[in-house]
TrEMBL record, chain A:
It comes from the Bacteria. The keyword Nucleotide-binding applies. Pfam families: ABC_tran (PF00005). SUPFAM superfamilies: P-loop containing nucleoside triphosphate hydrolases. CDD domains: ABC_NrtD_SsuB_transporters. Gene3D superfamilies: P-loop containing nucleotide triphosphate hydrolases. The keyword Calcium does not apply. This is NitT/TauT family transport system ATP-binding protein.
Automatic annotation (TrEMBL), chain B:
Residues 56-240 form the ABC transmembrane type-1 domain. GO terms for cellular component: plasma membrane. It comes from the Bacteria. Pfam families: BPD_transp_1. It is found in: Cell membrane. Belongs to the binding-protein-dependent transport system permease family. InterPro entries: MetI-like, MetI-like_sf. This is ABC-type nitrate/sulfonate/bicarbonate transport system, permease component. It is a multi-pass membrane protein. It comes from Geodermatophilus ruber. The chain crosses the membrane at residues 60-84, 105-134, 183-207, 219-239. Keywords: Cell membrane, Membrane, Transmembrane, Transmembrane helix, Transport. GO terms for biological process: transmembrane transport.
Length: 271, 257
């Protein structure tokens, strides 16, 4: 479905070159919900931009359904962290959600259906005509999610979408992601720096090292499919998985040998 | 009640100034400073009489034409210059040069090229008020938010749709700032272009009144100009507040948080 192979990105500056991403290889299967977790500043955003065709990788490739990504591909939607800057402030909620569909030339009846459905799915059925800046941060991010869902993407990328909202809103939005994923069955890659969030949401968690970034481990999350904030998070298995991710991320730097880590993803299988 | 108080505040000072002028000039026998009552008579009889169609209207039509051309050219060039860095590097020195030329001095030159009829006056107005529009537009286009721009790209919004849904709305606050500056320049140039070799217009009529010692009419012409400028900027503010309602709302929301 989505294959990332040997991805490397080096920023060439005047005075110094920064190797943001060293060597990343992983795949996403159709219908999967995978979380990508890594420490702050580990090149997650760089990776996401390369995957979405906004940035050109230095080497390696990204393939979406067998087709090489060399610019924003048609079947991809992204939810950015900065909800306040990713919605068009001169458009109402409805217009924001509808615009990509117009661009995609979806017939108007189908468009209306998709827009209604997705706005209802994120719980904003009352706010069609509101402007984004009239809504709270969490609601704005819901609009961005509705826009992505309505687009019917083959793959949905989320770049730390809840990093800027408060804890309670965040928990609600996490549950929203799980329920939307079940309802619409969109293949989703969820990028976060929050270990708990990654374990709670994902079927699989890809653990990244510090920059220059490699994959430390591809960890299957064998928690039950029905998850809820109260019981899942207090279960013993959740604590174990969480500890495992934590120890991988904070493993001392000496052990961080690129070749070893790069091989790691092959070890853990599909869930 | 609140509204009444605001209106009272807004018109308070003008009313006081007007009354002061009225009282102090009432018994004036100075030829050059006639009583305000005579100026107002002339304003009503002449300027809101035959001169409205003979002089005010032609001036306003030229103003509208010049301003419209400047807006179209300024916004188009501004979008191009704001979008393509290469083009900006190429044109910047030339633009800086042209911008530095005070528009009134191009009047004699343009007279040679376009004659002394309406075309010349419209070109003068357009030339002068294009710069603030162009430069503000370019600045606004250059400052389009990077996340918003990435969002548009990932949803493959490009070409005309990108211009219509992203670039122009995003730059519209700056475009309006440019248009507002341009409008006040346009009014000045409207008058100046009529001071040379003209046969009608506000500027022409005021100079003619002065030369033929029709002093109250000259003063009335000045009042008429002030009034016009005031009404035009009021009209502009109404249009702007409608068009940029989202922007003012956004700013209020940002200030509140």
């Amino acid at each position: 479905m989505l294959e990332v192979t040997g991805l490397k990105k080096v920023y060439e500056g005047k005075s110094r070159t920064v190797e943001a991403v060293r060597d990343l290889t992983f795949t996403l299967d159709t219908g999967e919900l995978v979380c990508l977790v890594g420490p702050s500043g580990c090149g997650k955003t760089t990776l996401l931009k390369c995957m979405s065709g906004l940035l050109e990788p230095t080497s390696g490739s990204v393939r979406l359904q067998g087709k090489e990504v060399d610019g924003p591909p048609p079947g991809m939607a992204i939810v950015f962290q900065e909800y306040g800057r990713s919605l068009f402030p001169w458009m109402s909620v409805r217009e924001n959600v509808e615009l990509p569909l117009k661009q995609k030339k979806v017939p108007s009846a189908r468009r209306k259906q998709l827009v209604d459905e997705s706005i209802a799915a994120v719980g904003l059925a009352d706010s069609h005509s509101a402007y984004p800046w009239q809504l709270s941060g969490g609601m704005q991010q819901r609009v961005a999610i509705a826009r992505a869902i309505a687009y019917e993407p083959q793959v949905l990328l989320m770049d730390e979408p809840f990093a800027a909202v408060d804890a309670q809103t965040r928990a609600d939005l996490e549950d929203l992601i799980r329920s939307l994923w079940k309802q619409f069955q969109v293949t989703t890659l969820f990028v976060t720096h929050d270990i708990d969030e990654a374990v709670y949401l994902g079927q699989r968690v890809l653990i990244l090292s510090k920059s220059p970034t490699v994959i430390r481990q591809d960890l299957a999350i064998d928690l039950p499919d029905e998850r809820d904030q109260l019981h899942t998070r207090s279960s013993a298995r959740f604590a174990e998985l969480r500890a495992q991710v934590y120890s991988q991320i904070h493993r001392p730097r000496e052990e961080q040998d690129a070749p070893v880590a790069a091989v790691a993803p092959a070890v853990a299988g599909q869930p | 009640m609140r509204v009444l108080r605001r209106i009272g505040f807004a018109v308070g000072l003008p009313v006081v100034l007007f009354a002061l002028w009225w009282v102090t000039s009432a018994s004036s026998t100075d030829f050059y400073f006639p009583p305000l009552s005579r100026i107002v008579d002339s304003l009503v009889e002449e300027w809101f009489g035959p001169r409205l169609a003979d002089d005010v209207l032609p001036s306003l039509l030229r103003l509208a034409a010049g301003f419209f051309i400047a807006a179209v050219v300024g916004i188009t060039l501004g979008v191009l210059i704001g979008t393509y860095k290469r083009l900006r590097d190429l044109l910047e020195p030339v633009l800086e040069f042209f911008r530095a030329i005070p528009p009134p001095v191009v009047v004699p030159i343009l007279m040679l090229i376009f004659g002394i009829e309406d075309t010349m006056k419209i070109v003068v107005i357009a030339f002068g008020c294009m710069w603030p529009i162009l430069l503000n537009t370019a600045e606004g286009v250059r400052a389009v938010d990077s996340v918003l721009s990435d969002t548009a790209r990932t949803y493959r919004i490009d070409g005309v749709a990108r211009l219509r849904n992203l670039i122009l709305p995003a730059a519209s606050p700056q475009i309006f700032a440019g248009l507002r500056q341009g409008l006040s320049v346009a009014i000045i140039l409207m008058v100046i272009s009529e001071l040379f070799a003209a046969s009608d217009g506000l500027g022409f009529a005021i100079v003619q009144a002065q030369r033929s010692f029709a002093i109250p009419e000259m003063w009335a012409g000045m009042l008429m100009l002030g009034l016009l400028g005031f009404l035009l900027s009021l009209l502009f503010r109404i249009v702007e507040s409608r068009w940029l309602a989202w922007y003012h709302g956004l700013r209020r929301a940002q200030r509140a948080s």
